[in-house]
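Encoded backbone
================
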Amino acid sequence: MTKIDFVEGETFLMDYCCFGSGKRVLVLLPGISLQPVSPLVEFIAAQYAVMTKDYTVYLFDRKRDISDGYSIENMADDTAEAMHKLGISSAYVYGCSQGGMIAQVMAAKHPELVAKLALCSTMCDINDVQLPIINKWLEYAEAGDALSLVRGFFKNVYSKDFQNKHAKVMKQMEKIAPHINLQQIIYLVKACLSFNATALLPFIKCETIVLASEYDDVLGVEASRKLAERLACKSKIYSDYGHAVYDETPDVLQEIQKFFN
C-alpha cells in the first residue's frame, strides 16, 4: 500500500511518498523531474517492488515553493529536517543525479541519518563537460520553451537505444509540457551549476557505492569516477546506457540491494 503525504518543517512543506513494509528504511532522492513525483508513486512502487519486503521506502520530493538561490545544501538540510520530523534515522539512502548531490551533502552534514549510501549518475562538482547540456536546459526553461525542454531532457538523459525502444514514451512526455513549472526547473538547474561538495567529501564516513554509465551525456562518466576515487569506495560502471542508467537496467537496483544487504 502506498501513501502520499507532506511533512512540515520550520520553513517549508515537502511532499513525500511511502510504500513497503520492511523493518529497515530506504530513502530515495530522485534527480530533477519535469513533473511532481507524487503522481508517479504507483509506477515507482512497482519499480522498487523487490525492496519492499525488507524496506519501508520513503521518496522525498523537493520542497514546495522553491525560490532563487535555493542550493543543493539547502535541499539536503531540508530533507534531513523532514526525515527527523518523520522519525527516520539511520536510513539506507539512494540518490540519483541531483538526488545524489543532495545525498552527499546529507551524509557529510547529517551522518546520523545515513547508514549506507548509494550514488548513481551524479557528481561532486561541476565541470566544463557538463555545462553545455545543463545550460541548454536552463536556456529552454528561461525562454518558456517547455516542449524543447522535454525533448532535450529525453534525448540527453536516455541512451539512443532506449529512445528508439520507447518512442511512444517520448510522445507521452510531450503532453506534460504545458504543465511544467518552468520557474522551479530554472532554480533546480541553477543549483546544479553552483554545486561543489569536494570540501565535504572527507566527512562522509558511511559505506558508499557509486554507479554510473560510460555514456552519460549529462554529467559524463568521469564525474562518477572522480567521486568514487575521492570517496575511496566501491563503484560499478555500466556500458550501453545513458545518464538514466537507474531507469534503463534493473541491474542497478539489484546491485544496490546487494550492497545494502
Observations:
- The chain has a mean pLDDT of 94.
- Strands lie at 3-8, 13-20, 24-29, 55-63, 91-96, 114-120, 207-213, 234-238.
- Residues 37 and 193 are 22 Å apart (CA to CA).
- The first helix runs from residue 41 to 47.
